[in-house]
Amino acid sequence: MRVLTFMFGLLLFCGSTFADGLKTYTVEGTFDGVAFDVESAIVDKGLVIDTKGDVARMLQRTGQDVSQDSRDIYVGATYFTFCSAVLSRKMMEADPATMGLCPYVVYVYETKANPGEVVVGFRELEDAGSDQAEDVLEEIDKWLDGIVRSAIGK
Questions:
Q1: What is the pLDDT of residues 119-145, one digit of tens each?
Q2: Which of 87, 103, 104, 131 is the most exposed place for a label (fewest CB within 10 A)?
Q3: In what order do the strands lie in the sheet with 104-111?
């Protein structure tokens, strides 16, 4: 569990520089403000957020149990999971195995090391699926990028 927690944190911290398959943007602001904007951008698309996970709180809660160094890593770290009925169906019609790529994940974090710099990103799907689903996965990546960019004003 310690290794899994470390790897997840590392992926979130490093962004697209080290973690292929994660598209990130860095903006100046407060974690709460940017997270609210991201949540609003998702809901404004008519989507239902299935899960809103608080990674920062989970790490604080479990820190003493899994680490000698239980310092806080994040000011805040949240992920949102959701699906699009239209795009998910299109993806799975192209290749039923792509079910494993759903739900879509958009995340927001601010580290203690870089206060005021908030990272927003999503897990890219294009390279995760089969050749049969390549076009629709590219479409979903562009759609997710649009949601993130609208949330951060880019």
A1: 999 999 988 878 889 999 999 999 999
A2: 131
A3: 22-28, 117-123, 104-111, 74-82, 49-54
- Give dist(CA 106, CA 23) in Å, integer: 10
Tokens 């860095």 sit at which residue? 26
Task: Single out the residue of 5, 104, 13 nearest to residue 58, CA to CA.
Answer: 5
Terminal alpha carbon distance of the chain: 37
Q: How many domains does the chain have?
A: 1
* Residue range(s) defining the domain that contains residue 123: 2-152
1-11 pLDDT, tens digit each: 443 343 344 44
CATH number at residue 62: 3.30.310.70
